[in-house]
Amino acid sequence: MEKGPVCVTGGTGFVASWLVMRLLQHGYTVRTTVRPDPECKRDLSFLTSLPRASENLQIFNADLNKPDSFNEAIEGCIGVFHVAHPMPTKELDEEVVTKKAVQGALGILKACLNSKTVKRVVYTSSASTVAYSGGSQDLVDESSWSDIEFHRSLKIFGTSYVAAKTKTEQAILEFAEKSGLEVVTLIPPLVVGGFICKNFPSSVYLALAMILDQVPIDEMSQFLSAKYPDFPIPTTDFLKGIEGYKSCGFSSQKLLSSGFKFKHGLDDMFGDAIQSCRGKGFL
User: Which of 105, 155, 100 has the alpha carbon at shortest distance from 125?
Assistant: First the structure.
């Protein structure tokens, strides 16, 4: 792909901010979107201070509730990374969150199609879209789909997230098939590693809490609830055994068969995460 402009939605997040940095490093002109901040209090210096950002980074306001707000950022781009996702404010918000995620994603895809310049869209999905099929598989891959009703029957947190992510990916793939737009979906599990964003990524906190044994789970829940009021946080009850459900592994065979090679192991992932936490004053 040529080094023309690319768009990354949700630029203040853990994964998206890394994408912005790497794309800049590889010589791309990058446009990223952030939720509107009426009071202009959000500190975006971690993005604007990145190498090459002063020349090659533009930041746009856009909101998934208003899909047309992404048009300006996408117009003229050759590629789009759709990473932004609304987080549920409570389990009862499933319908609202799903509608926002699906309509926002479809609006972004329509903008890509209308641009006549976007050659490929990469959508960041989630392992939650394949992990809860209700079957007995030890290993699942991209051919599996989570059963939302099965997840709901487990009576654990996160059904809003599972439903929204699953239905959004399905809608995206259906749109791509009908329109001919080239779309690639990625299914990451828990994301762990160093981070450049300002907030403490919830996935990093959850991963470190499991190995550091320094923070009681209820205290961790309180911390995350304060930091991420829109994210459903597990409690001690969640960590107790769930009768009739066994977690599964995730196959990377399709990724590996495409030529991808893993370069970093657990030492890098957790070491970099701890270093970032210390550098930002979280540890």
Answer: 105
